[in-house]
């Protein structure tokens, strides 16, 4: 019962997009999904949180801040109108699409919380269950003809009286992280101006033209549509399952400084040249070396006592923005998914061994290089690889990106003190460092008893590279 008293519902409203002056009739329109939306269509959700210092009362928030939040949201939804709509998934052979009407709204929930703002907005381990209270849930419905209806976006503002504010978004994956970032930056910029300056969104409006995203190989849409119908057949069982409890899992953020990252790069390139100078690249990205260290450290932490399963396959999946990789121009503000899914695999003992970090760097670097030359090389196998990853192996999926500049999302309260993503233990989240240019923040979910050993393994990895360089 104490948990119920911690969070109090203040208001739940539905914000409609502002009406255009010339609008006199009610209309319904639809936005088709592209071939790259199909692998992620359905009940695939992303949850992001923005924490801000806000030393005011809930009453002050409701009287002075909330009206501007609502007004600016209503204006921004004129430009991002599909987000107020619904994803409709009719039964085969019909394709899914986004339905938009003049009556569409986005739910905005206001919560007052007595939880510890400083703790929840810190890098220290905190309960996934506690973080989950800060995000709104997205529901679904079904029609008589077995059509699924998925609302696309829900928003929540949680006030921690006299301490802080958390603005959270939960969205259906009909748009990628870059699109969500575009929406949040546009909304926050307008809100910061008091709801009067639309310059940002007017200078870079979202592009809804599906013709700009052409299948570079031909035939991928048919493959993805077949995979989508297979996945759709599993939704009923998945959606009626009881939501799993998260009390035993916690999330912490590890910050890698620029010097840490440069040390990792130098050390691993030296090791690579010793054994295979001919195939050693001249440069490694911070994404590759940090992800490799995190992947190996997690495997060593979670399976340090599981020697009998050391031949089990471990998978590392990340997505790459393809807007500049398709051989034809795709606007940076394209609305939808424009992602290539990349899979790397190693046996567990190859990650746990002495050369685990180098092995991980090599396989992630090769996967990334292959994607650059041919983004959809194995696209016809994406669903099969996904099933294999979860059924036969153990996955680690990357969410977020250091390229989004999420710490520049200012609603008028200053830069966020923390930007968080809520996800399962099968994921790791990435963001740029808030306080150091060139650094990276990595969010990891583990059981509470695993963190001490995980931090030790990560520190040992960093120390090894530093001592070698020195």
List key phrases describing it.
about 475 residues, alpha+beta, Chloramphenicol Acetyltransferase, 2 domains, seven-stranded mixed sheet, six-stranded mixed sheet, 14 helices, 18 strands
Can you walk me through this structure?
The chain is of the alpha+beta class and about 475 residues long. The protein has 2 domains: about 1-15 and about 25-240, Chloramphenicol Acetyltransferase (2-Layer Sandwich); about 250-405 and about 425-470, Chloramphenicol acetyltransferase-like domain (Chloramphenicol Acetyltransferase), CATH 3.30.559.10. It has 14 helices and 18 strands. The chain has helices at about 1-5, 60-80, 115-120, 130, 175-190, 200-205, 220-230, 235-240, 260-275, 285-300, 350, 355-375, 380-390, 450-470, and strands at about 5-15, 30, 45-55, 85-90, 95-100, 105-115, 125, 140, 150, 155-160, 165-170, 250-255, 315-320, 340-345, 395-400, 420, 425-430, 440-445. The strands form 3 sheets. It has a 7-stranded mixed beta sheet with strand order 7-12-18-17-15-13-14. A 6-stranded mixed beta sheet has the order 1-6-10-11-3-16. Strand 17 and strand 18 form a beta hairpin. Helix 10 crosses helix 12 (about 355-375). The longest helix has 22 residues, at about 60-80. It is globular, with a radius of gyration of 23 Å.
């Amino acid at each position: 019962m104490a948990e119920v008293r911690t969070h109090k519902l203040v208001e739940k409203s539905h914000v409609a997009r502002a009406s255009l002056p010339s609008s006199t009739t009610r209309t319904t329109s639809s936005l088709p999904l592209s071939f790259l939306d199909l692998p992620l269509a359905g009940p695939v959700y992303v949850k992001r949180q923005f924490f801000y210092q806000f030393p005011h009362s809930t009453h002050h928030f409701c009287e002075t801040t909330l009206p501007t939040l609502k007004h600016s949201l209503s204006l921004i939804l004129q430009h991002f109108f599909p987000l107020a709509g619904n994803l409709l998934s009719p039964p085969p052979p019909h394709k899914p699409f986004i339905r938009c009407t003049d009556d569409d709204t986005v739910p905005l929930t206001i919560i007052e919380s007595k939880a510890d703002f400083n703790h929840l907005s810190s890098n220290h381990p905190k309960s996934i269950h506690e973080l989950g209270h800060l995000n709104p849930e997205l529901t679904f419905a079904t029609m008589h003809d077995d059509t699924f209806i998925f609302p696309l976006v829900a928003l929540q503002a949680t006030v921690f009286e006299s301490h802080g504010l958390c603005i959270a978004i939960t969205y259906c994956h009909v748009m990628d992280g870059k699109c969500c970032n575009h929406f949040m930056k546009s909304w926050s910029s307008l809100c910061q101006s008091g709801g009067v300056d639309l310059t940002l969104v007017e200078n870079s409006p979202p592009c809804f033209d599906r013709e700009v995203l052409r299948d570079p190989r031909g035939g991928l849409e048919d493959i993805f549509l077949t995979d989508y119908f297979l996945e759709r057949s599993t939704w009923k069982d998945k959606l009626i399952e009881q939501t799993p409890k998260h009390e035993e899992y916690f999330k912490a953020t590890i910050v890698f400084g620029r010097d840490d990252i440069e040390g990792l790069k130098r050390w691993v390139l030296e090791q690579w040249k010793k054994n295979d100078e001919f195939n050693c690249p001249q440069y490694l990205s911070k994404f590759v070396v940090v992800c490799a260290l995190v992947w190996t450290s997690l495997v060593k932490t979670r399976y340090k006592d599981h020697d009998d399963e050391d031949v089990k396959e471990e998978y590392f999946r990340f997505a790459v923005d393809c807007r500049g990789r398709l051989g034809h121009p795709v606007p940076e503000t394209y609305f939808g998914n424009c992602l290539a899914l990349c899979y790397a695999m190693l046996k567990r003992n190859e990650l746990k061994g002495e050369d685990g970090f180098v092995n991980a760097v090599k396989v992630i670097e090769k996967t990334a290089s292959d994607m650059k030359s041919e983004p959809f090389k194995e696209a016809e196998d994406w669903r099969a690889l996904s099933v294999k990853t979860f059924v036969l192996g153990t996955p680690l999926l990357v969410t977020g990106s250091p390229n989004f500049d999420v710490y520049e999302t200012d609603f008028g309260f200053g830069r966020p003190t923390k930007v968080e993503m809520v996800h399962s233990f099968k994921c790791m989240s990435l963001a740029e460092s808030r306080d150091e240019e060139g650094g990276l923040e990595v969010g990891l979910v583990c059981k509470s008893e695993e963190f001490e050993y995980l931090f030790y393994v990560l520190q040992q990895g960093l120390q090894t590279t530093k001592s070698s360089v020195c």
